[in-house]
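Service request form, structural biology core

Requester: graduate student, group of Dr. S.
Request type: structure prediction, single chain
Budget code: on file
Notes: please return the result as structure tokens.

Sequence provided:
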Amino acid sequence: MKIDRLLAIIILLLNHQKMTGKELSERFEVSLRTIYRDIEAINQAGIPIISYAGKNGGFEIMEHYKLDRQQLSLKEMISMMTALQGFHTMLGDDTVKLLIEKIQSLIDKDKQTQLKKHSEQINIDFNPWRINDGAQEKLQQLRLAIDNKQQIQFMYTNLQGQDRFRTVEPFAVVLKGFAWYVYGYCTQQKDFRIFRLSRLTNLRTTDQTFTRQAVSIEEIEARWGRLQANTQLKLLFQPTIKARVFDYFLPKEIEVQKDGTLLVTTKYHEDNWVYNMILSFGAEVLVLEPENVRSIIEKRVRKIIQLYESHAK
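Core staff response, request fulfilled:
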């Protein structure tokens, strides 16, 4: 649409010192004649564009001109851009990229150096160290399904290693810690469920539409949270694993002992995930309570030993 192109030209000229007609025509895949008409229309709208002839010529918006910033301070706009750039690294969304350009256009050219300095000091990157190449595509597909209120289908691997086919009315995609989750209504379970994106395969969007139910993200999370915290654990960690302990648990849950060991008292939903989490600390952790969890961990350790003994050369 022409109005979109005119707005995009204004933003580009606000963010760049100068651009030639050829650069603009190639950027928007239109003729030079069309670009000249667009520049004239923008001038008539009251936005002063100066034209420079010659080898270093081009178009430029008059210095010190800026769009209305709606009372946003420079610090507020920089904070918004920092957050948006973080989301752009994860989502790869052209809409987010354009929004960053729009906000940047509201900042005076003489303040751009301050913006660049700040972006080098604080950088938000939601991508994990081990990048899942398919996550970005899944997120884009899910967002479209949510916007269009279309059911999705996929295979889901649960904590027991079982693959289950699911048909879901997607409600939201949520970033929790280092993982993305899909919140939605599962037609098989006839209830709201939370699915971890990394365990979701063969995702497809169906033609079946749905009416969004009157439930909030907070209500779904509250139900999930109650399921998660039904077992109190007491774990004793060796000092050598101190860094990981502070990564995993809240400071109020950790008590450093006189001998340097760390006593952790926390609550989790008791399932395979929590058993595997404990085992991931290897010989650096001892389960003190409850007894049934201690027994399960001990049995799994013995099973690991038997596995290695059976494959010993």
